[in-house]
């Protein structure tokens, strides 16, 4: 076999988040798609679950002429699919599959899975069945297309993302062994569970047994499919060195390749458009804040935020709020700080009273009324206006509970105001009515003090939009940023003879975090925000440029080489397996 790296003729990628925007993997796939589509034009196909048969999916444009003959053939094999284009840069081909018909075969599928790969599905609960039936359906889709159009003379890759697609990867290995399989875990299910259950993960990682912890935390089935997939595919990958160590200890498998998550700068506006949209975002954030709290916060307000999944400890929401409590008690703070908590909770729709105030403002803006309404009292009946949306169970919500416990009630005299935004910022939330990226433009600083973060897209997105951020050493992105900063310092030291960068201001601050230094991290965050609030406009601009410069190094054009390495490994192992048959 040639020593030249092998490249695929065709690539299938399967994920629960294809045309289904629910988490960070969506960003991985959707931002990387164009980079691969430019090389493998219409030879990379994404497979996702079809939840949208009875309603429009804005991310998917069906094309009934595309592969119409195969669609009919697949239907005769019991596959209900829709074929079209993902509405993202590159517009790659997508196959959405209806997995619901396979529930009738669930027990037989699980039985075969146990026989062939010793995957324990006996303890399945929650989303395990739904994800597994999708994964099985995706495997069947690939099998059908392969036999119809490809065959053993083609080099074909099947890449499965997260435990939810493991069953499909194992199905492919059993039934279409000529296809090279790659499994990418973006976070181990058992590692996330250990961290989420308040157990110390990092200091004891070497001592944990993954199978034993799965029994203790009732994670047997998810851990089993993830572990067995990692051990049986041709190439096992993860997204950072942090998670690679976790895989080695908890899955008993060292990843073959680390695939760091990149970003495409196509999403970021430039020039006058950037300035205009940033101004619009800041105006909207302040309008909502002032309407909610009855304040007159001005454009000199320092606007900060954290965002992501509602994982109280893992995402560092707990330490973020604690830091804000420390900051509000610091007499040296001389500037208003508006802190947003943008995590989707169990919300019951936008507050009608807030909508009414915003409607008044919007009407005045449309008529170009130079004198906009101001509100001198917080919205009632809440004595502490901290939430933009109604909550189903406000008494059980951890964010509002913590704010009440700290006594943070957005009193006019407080320099630090906190607003909880418990919804997806999809442009139709009823309050901001702007997309996440559009609002991100209006921020001055972001805080992501993660405890468990295999990579960390939110800080990378932040700096791509020129918003400096703070993260931790427990995030894969944080470690990468530290490495990049160290290289930059070495380069500058060589050119200037100095051991230190000329600039003290950086686009990213990475805080050392461990299992037991919560208070230290909280105090450090408070001091970093305080310090940033004192920067001059010129210093802020330096920090924003530094942030954007670092983001440039994380573009997919730099990271895609790791995928080619994974393709080569998988294809070689698949070829060797075929020779043995």
Summarize the structure.
This protein has 581 residues and is α/β, with parallel strands linked by helices. The chain has 19 helices and 17 strands.
Q: Main sheet: which strands, in order across?
A: 3-4-5-2-1-6-7-8-9
Give the count of helical stretches.
19
State the helicity in percent bands.
40-55%
- Secondary-structure-based class equals alpha/beta
Main pleated sheet: 9 strands, mixed
Overall 3D geometry? globular
Strand content: 5-15%
Average of pLDDT: 93
Low-confidence stretches: 496-504
What is the total tally of β strands?
17
Q: For the CA atoms, what is the radius of gyration? A: 25 Å
Question: How far apart are the first and last residues' alpha carbons, in Å?
Answer: 17 Å
What does this structure look like?
By secondary structure, the protein is α/β, with parallel strands linked by helices. It is 44% helix and 14% strand. The protein contains 19 helices and 17 strands. Helix 11 links the parallel strand 10 and strand 11 (337-342). Mean pLDDT is 93; it is low at 496-504.
Describe the SSE topology.
Elements: E1 10-14, H1 24-39, E2 44-49, E3 60-62, H2 68-76, E4 80-86, E5 93-98, H3 106-117, H4 128-149, E6 156-161, H5 166-175, E7 180-185, H6 189-196, H7 210-216, H8 220-232, E8 235-238, H9 241-250, E9 257-258, H10 271-293, E10 302-307, H11 317-328, E11 337-342, E12 347-350, H12 352-366, E13 389-391, H13 398-406, E14 416-421, H14 436-440, E15 445-447, H15 457-464, E16 469-472, H16 476-496, E17 508-511, H17 518-533, H18 537-552, H19 556-580
Parallel strand pairs: 1-2, 1-6, 2-5, 6-7, 7-8, 8-9, 10-11, 10-15, 11-14, 15-16, 16-17
Antiparallel strand pairs: 3-4, 4-5, 12-13
């Amino acid at each position: 076999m040639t020593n030249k790296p092998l490249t695929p003729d065709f690539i299938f990628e399967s994920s629960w988040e294809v045309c289904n925007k629910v988490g960070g993997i969506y960003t991985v796939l959707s931002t990387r798609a164009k980079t691969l589509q430019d090389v493998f034009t219409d030879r990379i196909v994404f497979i996702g679950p079809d939840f949208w048969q009875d309603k429009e999916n804005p991310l998917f444009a069906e094309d009934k002429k595309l592969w119409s003959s195969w669609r009919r053939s697949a239907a005769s094999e019991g596959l209900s699919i829709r074929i079209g284009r993902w509405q993202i840069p590159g517009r790659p081909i997508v196959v959405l599959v209806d997995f619901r018909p396979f529930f009738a075969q669930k027990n037989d599928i699980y039985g075969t899975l146990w026989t062939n790969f010793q995957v324990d599905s006996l303890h399945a609960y929650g989303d395990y069945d739904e994800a597994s039936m999708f994964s099985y359906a995706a495997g069947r889709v690939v099998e059908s297309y392969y036999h119809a159009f490809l065959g053993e003379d083609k080099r074909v890759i099947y890449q499965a993302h997260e435990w939810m697609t493991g069953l499909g990867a194992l199905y492919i290995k059993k039934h279409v062994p000529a296809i090279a399989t790659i499994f990418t875990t973006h976070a181990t299910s058992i590692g996330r569970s250990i961290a989420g259950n308040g157990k110390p993960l990092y200091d004891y990682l070497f001592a944990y047994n993954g199978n034993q912890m799965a029994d203790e935390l009732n994670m047997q089935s998810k851990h089993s499919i993830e572990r067995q997939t990692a051990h049986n595919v041709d190439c096992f990958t993860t997204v950072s060195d942090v998670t690679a160590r976790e895989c080695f200890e908890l899955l008993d498998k060292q990843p073959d390749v680390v695939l760091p998550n990149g970003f495409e700068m196509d999403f970021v506006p430039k020039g006058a458009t950037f300035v205009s949209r940033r101004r619009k975002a800041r105006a909207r954030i302040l309008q909502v804040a002032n309407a909610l709290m009855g304040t007159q916060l001005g454009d000199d307000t320092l606007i900060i935020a954290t965002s992501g999944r509602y994982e109280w400890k893992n995402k560092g929401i707990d330490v973020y709020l604690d830091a804000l409590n420390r900051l509000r008690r610091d007499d040296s703070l001389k500037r208003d700080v508006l802190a947003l908590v943008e995590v989707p909770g169990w919300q019951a729709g936008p507050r009608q009273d807030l909508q009414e105030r915003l409607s008044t403002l919007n009407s005045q803006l449309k008529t170009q009324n130079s004198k906009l309404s101001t509100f001198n009292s917080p919205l009632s009946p809440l004595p502490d206006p901290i939430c933009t949306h109604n909550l189903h169970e406000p008494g059980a919500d951890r964010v509002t509970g913590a704010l009440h416990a700290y006594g943070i009630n957005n009193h006019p005299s407080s320099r630090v105001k906190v607003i909880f935004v418990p919804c997806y910022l999809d442009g139709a939330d009823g309050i901001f009515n702007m997309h996440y990226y559009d609002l991100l433009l209006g921020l001055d600083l972001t805080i992501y003090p993660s405890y468990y973060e295999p990579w960390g897209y939110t800080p990378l997105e932040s700096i791509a939009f020129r918003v400096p951020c703070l993260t931790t050493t427990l995030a894969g992105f944080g470690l990468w940023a530290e490495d990049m900063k160290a290289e930059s310092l070495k380069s500058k030291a060589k050119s200037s003879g100095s051991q230190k960068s000329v600039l003290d201001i950086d686009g990213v601050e990475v805080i050392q975090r461990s299992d037991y230094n919560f208070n230290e991290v909280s105090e450090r965050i408070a001091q970093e925000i305080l310090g940033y609030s004192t920067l001059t406009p010129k210093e802020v601009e330096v920090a924003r440029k530094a942030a954007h410069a670092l983001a440039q190094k994380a573009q997919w054009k730099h990271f895609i080489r790791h995928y080619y390495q994974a393709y080569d490994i998988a294809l070689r192992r698949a070829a060797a397996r075929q020779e043995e048959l």
